[in-house]
Design a protein that fits this description.
By secondary structure, the chain is mostly helical. The chain contains five helices and no strands.
Amino acid sequence: MLEQMDEGTLKQYLADDPPTVVCLAIKPHFEALSDNEKTYAHYISRACFSGTRINLRQVSPESEAIYDLIIGLHKSCDGE
């Protein structure tokens, strides 16, 4: 099947080499918020984090275990 795709279409399925890295600069944007907006952003963030496992369970039976594996790998190498 890969032989049947033209090069432009095939390129859509390949990873960037080297991989693209984009730094997210959040601090200046967060500091520009009012105190109420900062509080709102904080609690929305906490709600999203708290709901992670609920979403994972709804996706597939394996996804929570995969998430735990990724978190475990991250912790084992101190995020490097």
